[in-house]
Amino acid sequence: MIIAIDGPAASGKGTLGKRLAHHYGYRHLDTGVIYRAVAYALMESGHDLRDETAAVQAALELDPERFGNPALKTQKAGEGASIVSAIPRVREVLVNFQRQFAADPPGAVLDGRDIGTVICPDADVKIFVVADPRVRARRRTMEARARGEEADEAAVLADIIQRDERDKNRPIAPLKPAADAYLLDNSQLDIEGGVRAAIDIIEAVRAGRSRG
Ligand SMILES: Nc1ncnc2c1ncn2[C@@H]1O[C@H](COP(=O)(O)OP(=O)(O)O)[C@@H](O)[C@H]1O
Ligand SMILES: Nc1ccn([C@@H]2O[C@H](COP(=O)(O)OP(=O)(O)O)[C@@H](O)[C@H]2O)c(=O)n1
């Protein structure tokens, strides 16, 4: 089974993806980390984030062993990711890696912006996670502070809004729910509540399928 999770910045996709993968015994890929890694490679080598040749090269040289680098979690890497991810050739290079991950047994949960629309249009279940931008900014701010970083909630909110706008309005693989995605608004839910709501969706889809 393939579970596709998409949604705007800091909506809880990664947390949900990880928890669902654990619940079902599947593998999990946070696809945002791929674009963050490409952006980080450019920043480290002093290239402009809009340098297509350098960005494509960084995408070709992607090393999943480095996905755990804490530097990829920063706001700067997220902002950079949203710039490099709008380059069509960068996305093209990264499609196969993601599809291969999704296809390997026993099943996979992928989260990102275009999983249900582009990467896995035939996913068994698609969930589009949303939450009020102020709630998302608050959560992301708390997360950064828990890591010992300084974070200004208003600046985090501005970054989230700017990134969502860029991701929604790019011509290639824009952030939008697939036509057959289930919307899950977790603004008023805690992590447990969000996971339960997602499992309810997945089980309802499975039950419907086995009846049909
Ligand atoms: N349903 C939820 N309720 C409360 N906090 C949440 C919820 N889902 C995620 N979080 C917290 O919000 C922050 C952003 O979640 P994350 O999974 O990193 O989002 P995304 O992958 O969409 O960027 C994290 O600190 C996470 O612990
Ligand atoms: N499948 C994906 C995942 C992320 N991205 C881009 O990568 C950026 C960072 O993604 P992320 O999921 O790590 O961001 P957060 O939601 O964790 O803040 C996004 O703003 C998108 O521009 C994408 O284009 N397609």
What is the strand content? 5-15%
Structural class: alpha/beta
- Low-pLDDT runs of 5+ residues are none
List SSEs in N-to-C order: EHEHHHHEHEHHEH
Strand order of the largest sheet: 2-3-1-4-5
Radius of gyration from the alpha-carbon trace, in angstroms: 17 Å
- Shape label: globular
- Under CATH, the homologous superfamily reads P-loop containing nucleotide triphosphate hydrolases
Structure, explained:
ATP binds at residues 7-15. This protein has 212 residues and is α/β, with parallel strands linked by helices. It has a single domain (2-211), classed as 3-Layer(aba) Sandwich (Rossmann fold), CATH 3.40.50. It has helices at residues 13-24, 32-44, 52-60, 75-84, 88-103, 115-119, 133-146, 153-169, 191-211, and strands at residues 2-6, 27-30, 108-112, 125-130, 182-185. The chain has a five-stranded parallel sheet, with helices on both faces. The two termini are 17 Å apart. The structure holds adenosine-5'-diphosphate (ADP) and cytidine-5'-diphosphate. Cytidine-5'-diphosphate binds at residues 9-10, 14, 31-32, 35-36, 78, 81-82, 85, 112-114, 163, 167.
Please write out the topology.
Blueprint: E1 2-6, H1 13-24, E2 27-30, H2 32-44, H3 52-60, H4 75-84, H5 88-103, E3 108-112, H6 115-119, E4 125-130, H7 133-146, H8 153-169, E5 182-185, H9 191-211
Parallel strand pairs: 1-3, 1-4, 2-3, 4-5
Helix pairs in contact: 1-9, 2-3, 2-4, 3-5, 4-8, 7-8
Domain Cytidylate kinase: 3-202
Binding site for ATP: 7-15
Protein name: Cytidylate kinase
